[in-house]
C-alpha cells in the first residue's frame, strides 16, 4: 500500500491515560518532524513514561490518537510500530546472550528481512561504537556499553522515530558524552524524543523542549527560542513545576 506523505513523523492528539480513577496523562499533544530532537521533561510521576509507552504502542491510550509518519498507530499497529525505535527506561537486554546474538534477535523481532540482517547488524554496530564487542556476553559489558546495545536494538530496523527514556541514567561523564554525540547524530536524519532529568543534556542536544507536570503539558518551546530570550531551562522548569 502507498503510504500518505506525512509532514510529521510523529503526531499525538489529545492523548490521555487513566489508571482506575487516577489520570496519569491528560490530553497531551505532541508533534515532531524529521531531523528534530525533542527534550521531554517533567518531575517524577509527571507522566513521561506513560506517554512514551502510548506513543510506542506499548500501552493503549484511554483517549486520543497517535500517527507515525501518517499511519494511525491504533488502526495499523504493525506498520506504525515498524517506524518506531524504543529504548525503555530499563533496557530490554538479555544478559546471557552475546551482543551479536541479541542484535540478530532484535532484528528478527523488528521483522528485518533475513537478507538484510547482516547489513543492519554491521551498520548499528558501527554506528553505536560496538566494534569488538560482538562475541561478548551482554552481562559482562559496562553499563555504558549495555546502553549502546539498548540503543542499537532500538535503531536496527532503521526507524523514522526514536524514543529514548532516560538513556544516560547511571552513566559516567565520558559515557554520557558519547551517548549524547550518538543521539545528536541520530537526530540529524530522524526524529528523536529524549526523556531526561538532565537539563544541560536538553540544552546541548535538543531542538525543542516539552515539559509535563501532573499529566499535562505545561510548557513547550524551541531551545533556541529560550536562549534568545535569555531564559535558562532550569528557571523555566522551576517556574512551571514547583509548588503547582
Ligand atoms: N501501571 C500503572 N498503574 C497505576 N498507576 C500507574 C501505572 N503506571 C504509571 N502510573 C502512575 O502514573 C503517573 C505517571 O507515571 P509515569 O511513570 O508516567 O511518570 P514519569 O514522568 O515517567 O516519572 P519518572 O520521571 O519518575 O520516571 C504516576 O502517578 C504513576 O504512579
Summarize the structure.
The chain is α/β, with parallel strands linked by helices. The protein has two domains: 1-83 and 161-170 and 191-244, P-loop containing nucleotide triphosphate hydrolases (Rossmann fold), CATH 3.40.50; 90-158, no CATH class.
How would the blueprint of this fold be written?
Elements: E1 10-19, E2 22-32, E3 37-41, H1 48-55, E4 63-68, E5 71-72, H2 77-81, E6 84-87, H3 99-109, H4 117-127, H5 143-155, E7 161-165, H6 173-189, E8 191-195, H7 199-205, E9 208-213, E10 216-222, H8 223-229, H9 233-241
Parallel strand pairs: 3-8, 3-9, 6-7, 7-8
Antiparallel strand pairs: 1-2, 1-4, 4-5, 9-10
Helix pairs in contact: 3-4, 3-5
The structure holds adenosine-5'-triphosphate (ATP).
Domain ABC transporter: 10-239
Keywords: ATP-binding, Cell membrane, Membrane, Nucleotide-binding, Transport
Protein name: ABC-2 type transport system ATP-binding protein
Q: Any idea what the CATH architecture of the largest domain is?
A: 3-Layer(aba) Sandwich
- How many structurally independent domains? 2
The overall pLDDT, averaged over residues, is 92
Helix content: 25-40%
Order of strands, widest sheet: 6-7-8-3-9-10
The ligands found in this model are: adenosine-5'-triphosphate
Low-confidence stretches: none
What fold name goes in the CATH topology slot of the largest domain?
Rossmann fold
Distance between the termini: 48 Å
Radius of gyration: 18 Å
H-E order: EEEHEEHEHHHEHEHEEHH
Structural class: alpha/beta
CATH class of the largest domain: Alpha Beta
Number of strands: 10
